[in-house]
Amino acid sequence: MSNFFSKDHNNIPKYALKMTKQKGIRMRVTARGELVVHANPFCTKEMIDKYVERHLDEVYFKAKVPTVRLFGRSFQVKKIKGTTSHVTTCEDELIIQAKDEASMEKVFQQFLRANAKDVLCDISEMIFYRFQEYSITMPKVLIRKMTSSWGICHPETNSITLNAELIHYPVEFIEYVVCHEFIHLLQPNHSPVFYDILKKVMPDYKRRIDLIETNNEKQYLM
């Protein structure tokens, strides 16, 4: 367990700290394998470090169990061999059934692609209604995996491309990304006008950005 998380010079496991209004301290391992601690501003670093040391074994155990995050919610992955192939969710479990391990992975990836397409397109259509007073038409929505962007706007073809990995993040954050790209159909850069439109169509956009937990993720919003 000591090798699972890297440690600082005080032998405390390294973690990303996220301030919250909730009482107490809690922590979790993100989909990227990073240890994230949520604490309110009244918690001192000493209190947080002690909490991390005390509860690390529990978090480590949970991290060893295969999990997948869908729309911000974590599911434990359960694999079952069977003659039919399908993926279902039941409470906090995601159940993958197929004839063998290779087939399970194929079925799971098909499940992710289909859900990413359906949900991201539905969200895009709903967000479009926030732009009724602006001179844009509903853009074509493309979806693919990307390594350094949550979304890309293509004004010349009236289309946007969304990162398929968004399927793992909260719906409210996905709505922000879609809104961000829609505004680029009107404003090509992050000008004051861009943010004026953003504040108007999505006043709580800053809260939505904070739904993602690490700076590595947030950098893709620039």
UniProtKB/TrEMBL annotation:
<dbReference type="InterPro" id="IPR053136">
    <property type="entry name" value="UTP_pyrophosphatase-like"/>
</dbReference>
<protein>
    <submittedName>
        <fullName>Protein of uncharacterized function DUF45</fullName>
    </submittedName>
</protein>
<feature type="domain" description="YgjP-like metallopeptidase">
    <location>
        <begin position="26"/>
        <end position="208"/>
    </location>
</feature>
<dbReference type="Pfam" id="PF01863">
    <property type="entry name" value="YgjP-like"/>
</dbReference>
<dbReference type="InterPro" id="IPR002725">
    <property type="entry name" value="YgjP-like_metallopeptidase"/>
</dbReference>
